[in-house]
User: Fold this.
Amino acid sequence: MLHRKNTALAQVISGNRAAAVALGAGLLTAYLFASQAGAATFTAPQGCRLEMSIQNRGCTVSQIYRCEADPAGIQHSAIFGQDGMIHMSTIDAETRWIESSNPQTGVVDTLVEQANDHASFSELLATGRDDFDFWTESNTGERLRHVGHDRLIGETVVIDGIELETTRFELNTYDGNGEVLIQRSGQQFISRANGRFYGGVEQFSDWTGDSGTTNDSPVDFSFPGQPGFGETEPKYDCDMMMARAVRGGDA
Assistant:
């Protein structure tokens, strides 16, 4: 499962919210220090190592890192837009939404441990489809239910030398009263080698009447020692995003 915008997420690793919040604070401090020093590069927290940087469509760049103190399979990501870090998330080996936060607002979303059907990357790989039905809760007290599925469609693509498999997904997010808040569907990618999802082209609609299509597909992958590794300035579709903002956000 890939974290999808405007949805609540995750669970605090080992039940320790204080440690997770401290990690996020350390990450943000490290990035701010680098920015103030004039370096447009990402610095992972102490005890963590940056593994890859991904330039995406939609004017974002993702930094993927792991930390020595984490349980096996845990991955963290920090996503940057034109105005700096806009999102942080944590997934486990099954790509469950372990934690998500917005460093600009301080909102943190965590996974409710009890679920009708947790997301399972291994189930997707074994059978070609994974259904899920789980809840998340934010530090503001909001509880959301996420119901849907991911499925492989038997197509493989190579993006910047990385072999990825194409998926299709559907996701409905409900409030605590069962009212639909967000509907999403579309296409994403997975990497078996890296054990994670990557964005793609998707359609959305929400309770406000807003709807549209987004493209968060990866374009460039950078690894240690390669050009672009750790860069936080997004490269793709930024002019389009700026033009859309000037027009008032219309599609």
